[in-house]
Design goal:
Number of domains: 1
Helix content: 40-55%
Number of strands: 5
Number of helices: 5
Order of helices and strands: EHEHEHEHEH
Shape: globular
CATH architecture: 3-Layer(aba) Sandwich
């Protein structure tokens, strides 16, 4: 597997933790500390998927999602949140075009399985 992922989170520990896990799973990983940095990276490079924190200082994940949809409508964007299960938030994310929604509090094995599922599902349908 050589999927190229971009992890966007304003918390360095969260970026590093998830990045290290996904590298061990065989993914090529880049990280961004802000929505603005992520948008610049996506302009310059192609990614198979973006893992995007919902709540960040500066530009929120939902704002970044909207901008990504304008420039890269087919890009897989998976929103990550520490907020927990919030049906209104999930509905809003889906309306705005996210490919999936993952809570950071679930076990790491489920996070990895969910990411794989979202990527494979999008590849089969698109």
């Amino acid at each position: 597997m050589s999927n190229k992922l971009l992890i966007v989170d304003d918390e360095k520990d969260a970026r590093d933790f998830l990045g290290n896990i996904l590298i061990r799973e065989g993914y090529f990983v880049k990280t961004a500390a802000s929505g603005e940095e992520a948008l610049e990276l996506v302009k310059k490079e192609d990614f198979d998927a973006v893992l995007l924190d919902v709540v960040m200082s500066g530009m929120s994940g939902l704002e970044v999602l909207k901008k990504l949809r304008e420039t890269k409508p087919d890009l897989i964007v998976i929103l990550l949140t520490a907020i927990g299960y919030d049906q209104k938030m999930i509905d809003k994310c889906m309306e705005d075009g996210c490919s999936g929604y993952i809570g950071k509090s679930i076990p790491v094995s489920q996070i990895i399985a969910s990411i794989k599922l979202f990527i494979e599902s999008k590849k089969r349908s698109g």
